[in-house]
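Check out one such.
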Amino acid sequence: MTKDMSKELEKLQLLKGGLVVSCQASDGEPLCHPDHILALALSALNGGAAGLRLEGADNIAHIRQNTIVPIVGLTKSKSVPEKDWIKHVYITPTFEDCIEISLAGADIIAIDATDRQRPGGVTVAQLIERIHKELNKPVWADCSTLADGLTAAQAGADVISTTLSGYTQETKVPPETTGPDLKLLEAFVRLTDKPVVLEGRVWYPSEVAEAFALGAFSCVVGSAITRPQLITQRFVKAMRATVNA
């Protein structure tokens, strides 16, 4: 382990027992601008967030200039339409993406750690090795299944997360009716010695509390905090169901 890697692992430890807030906005959304993402991030930090999960080098660099908290960085492939995310790797698919967000200031690199085909046929293990050796950054493995997590852990991933459970063809669930995958979290905790994170469809504080009771290292909350259009939709849907009953 290099000296630089040790520093980044120390930053990772700052997330233990804390909440990571995912501050992201898709192209075309009103909040999709580094200044708006910064405002969301600073608001989350004011509320007690221990760290941030951010997409894109521009957003990461802008927020890095304004805070020293741990940043989990990722990219989302522009060549994979959102409608095809369930079929293809789109989260930090290449090592070049990893370089970009590392240089922008990400402390931890999040990658898709599913068994789906990656560009150039690069394996999860190969990507993790390059990130460790060439960038000296910890790897946050976004997984969809138990097999994904065990494979990523064996390959040296520093964090195992439930991020993609429900968002692959193998695990697809209706997100509007299904909560986070606490069963997968529990299995990761039981079967690996890595820090395990709950992420994906976390809407209620009680789900975060349950995750920590099960042994989670940290929890990530995104839409429930930083996606106003989705929060509004939930209220509107509940209102219409009552009015039309």
